[in-house]
Target: Glutamate dehydrogenase 2-like protein
Amino acid sequence: MDAFNIQGFMWDEEKVNNELKNYMTRGFKDVKDMCKTHECDLRMGAFSLGVNRVARATVLRGWEA
Model:
């Protein structure tokens, strides 16, 4: 089965699965690193990482509070 991405490129199932695996692995590593830095559980690490990413994007876009 083939899939299209947002740019209209066609990907085969193997490429989709590989990209998903890389994305999930990188995401877990980022959460794990946050947990080590702040000595917290995975739930709090994921929440902290998400809040930090939103805050960074807000600053980069010039929407500082």
